[in-house]
Write a structure and sequence with these properties.
Number of domains: 2
Distance between the termini: 46 Å
Strand content: 15-25%
Shape: globular
Number of strands: 13
Strand order of the largest sheet: 3-1-2-4-5-6-9-8
Number of helices: 10
Helix content: 25-40%
Radius of gyration: 21 Å
Length: 299
Amino acid sequence: MNDADVRLGYLAETVRLLYPGPGSPRAYTVLPHAAVPRRLAPRRWWHLWSEVVVPGEGSIAEHLSEVFGRPVEIVLHVRPARRANRKPILEVRSSGRRLAFVKIGDSPQARELITAEAAALRRLAGLGLETVATPAVLHHGDWRGLAVLALSPLPVRRGRAPRPPLLLKAIKEIARTGGRSAAWHGDLAPWNMCPAPDGRLLVWDWERYEVDVPYGFDAVHYFFQRALRRMDPPAAARACVARAARELAPLGLSAATAKQTALRYLIALADRHAADGHAPLGPPETWLNPAVDHEELLT
């Protein structure tokens, strides 16, 4: 199966889940087209591709209209299906304005991640962050046995990477949210952040937020995810350890502590993948072991 087939198959499953019917039909369109499926949006007269008809009554759109107290339209993001934490992502609009992004917990793992993100965002909202801007929790509840988390949209401008000083300030501020122990975002990657017009850093997807971790995990993760775009996982893991001292020096870590932090991060990431039952980087013995086997034992 190619990517389009996988996405369309997952889209069909998701439509059956969120639009169970029966009810008055509503026309949607797969955009930009079926060969490159990325969104399922309400049908417009200028849409060229064949329509997809889904029930309206008893659907997630009807439920969210009740949540927001107004009629809403839903754009369903057609996600890649081969992901450990896959879940339906909806864009909620009313009168041409984006109201929220909604995550649907359609599996035990997705429900757990959604619950964790809601708790993390509520915690962060009470801390008065100055550098990092997070979404607000607009609604967290259940519908037909599914978890529903609605988050305020951030004024994202795609394609803009944060400058190193802003990223460093954000990493330090996130770590301070742990109180006496460090905290990390858990997936502080380029696709989960964007500089804001007011000088802050917009950061979303807080599902993996965690406290009481080694200081510097976010910085290592950011480096590793960027490295994976240029090299294979074994090379990226080796680079992670080799560059640790340089990458973590701005956080005040010694070379020895930086290397240990990088090693602990790689092990923690492998543990996460194992817990998820997912191996996006391949078996750990192919990418993790070569990076850690020749290093000193962790203390």
